[in-house]
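Thread: quick sanity check before group meeting

JM: Hey all, I'm pulling together slides for Thursday and realized we never actually wrote out the predicted structure for the chain we discussed last week. Dropping the sequence here so it's in one place. If anyone has concerns about the input, flag it before I start.
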Amino acid sequence: VKVKIPFGNKYLDAIFSVPEKKPTYGVILTHGAGGDMNFPHLVSLAAHLASHGVLCLRFTCKGLNLAYRTKAFKAVVEYLKLSDDYKLSGVFLAGRSMGSRAAASVIRQLSQDDDDDGFIQGLVCLSYPLHRPKLQSKLRDEDLLLISCPVLFVSGSADEMCEKQLLEGVVSKMKAPKKIHWIDKANHGMAVKGRTTNDVMEEINAQVFSWLRENVPLQHK
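JM (edit): ok, ran it. Output follows.
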């Protein structure tokens, strides 16, 4: 289902992947610095989640400014929260690369507001860009260290923007419940020599769904 989400004086293009049964939980998903919501990994994940009963709303927000992307993500969260079509008990925010930074930033901001009502259940970071390539000294970890909801990282062990030991170091300092799933030998784009894209996406999708299932409050299962 295609929708346009109001954002300031503009609209964000978005697509709902709707499960057959009425969902109680949703995932909001966005793309990295390049591309848009039709990035194959996002389309694949959205379809997988919807087929397992989780509503997925993916959206496009062009713009390389993190603050702008964060504002857009907040607008989408508000839109889904107030939606009459889908009355959800909670959502997980998910993003790929820069999209996961924006998601982390939204969660940190909302958790510092007094009106944090528990609507956001957790964060999924696909290829979190912990540092620029070859710039390991400047870590983008400030939001991660201030988040308290559960976080899943799915990263390639050969990601040039997320050195394995550095992410493990940051995660060990995080207060939130967290898990890292390493895709062996994958780069930042989740490409692995000798494996098809579909094969890698199936691994990612299965990991994300099983983690979501572990983190959905029991009373709603």
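AS: nice. The chain has one domain: 2-215. The two ends are 25 Å apart (CA to CA).
JM: adding both to the slides.
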